[in-house]
Design a protein that fits this description.
Mean pLDDT: 96
Order of helices and strands: EEEHEEEEEEHE
Strand content: over 45%
Radius of gyration: 13 Å
Distance between the termini: 40 Å
Structural class: mainly beta
Helix content: under 10%
C-alpha cells in the first residue's frame, strides 16, 4: 500500500516556526531519497529539501539556513523544521520521494499535503 500523510501545518506570523511531519508507507520510505515539496497558488510544485537514508541533506536556495529536514528511519517519518518563516513560504507542503521514482514507480501518487500560511 502506498501512503503519505503530512501534518503540522497552520497559520503562523512572519518570523515564526513550524514543524511538519510526514508518515510514509514502507514502499515509499524505503527509497533512498525523501523530500519536502511545496506548491503555492498559481505556481508549480517545487522541491525545497531532500535527505538520503544516510542523512545527507540538500536545500533549495531560498530556504537554506531556515529549514532543516530530518528523517526517522525506524518510524518511516520525515520532518521539516521551518524557522524564520516568510510570507513567501506560504504554500501546501507535501513529502515524497525523488521525482523520477514518483513518476515511474508510484504513478505520480501524492498525499493530501499540509497548508502553511505565513501572515500577520
Amino acid at each position: 500500500q502506498v501512503q503519505l500523510v503530512e501534518s503540522g501545518g497552520g497559520l503562523v506570523q512572519p518570523g515564526g516556526s513550524l514543524r511538519l511531519s510526514c508518515a510514509a508507507s514502507e514502499s515509499i520510505f524505503s527509497r533512498n531519497i525523501m523530500g519536502w515539496y511545496r506548491q503555492a497558488p498559481g505556481k508549480q510544485r517545487e522541491l525545497v529539501a531532500s535527505i538520503t537514508r544516510g542523512g545527507r541533506s540538500s536545500y533549495e536556495d531560498s530556504v537554506k539556513g531556515r529549514f532543516t529536514i530530518s528523517r526517522d528511519n525506524a518510524k518511516n517519518t520525515v520532518y521539516l523544521q521551518m524557522n524564520s518563516l516568510k510570507p513567501e513560504d506560504t504554500a501546501v507542503y507535501y513529502c515524497n520521494t525523488d521525482p523520477f521514482t514518483i513518476r515511474t514507480k508510484f504513478r505520480d501518487y501524492w498525499g493530501q499535503g499540509t497548508q502553511v500560511t505565513v501572515s500577520s
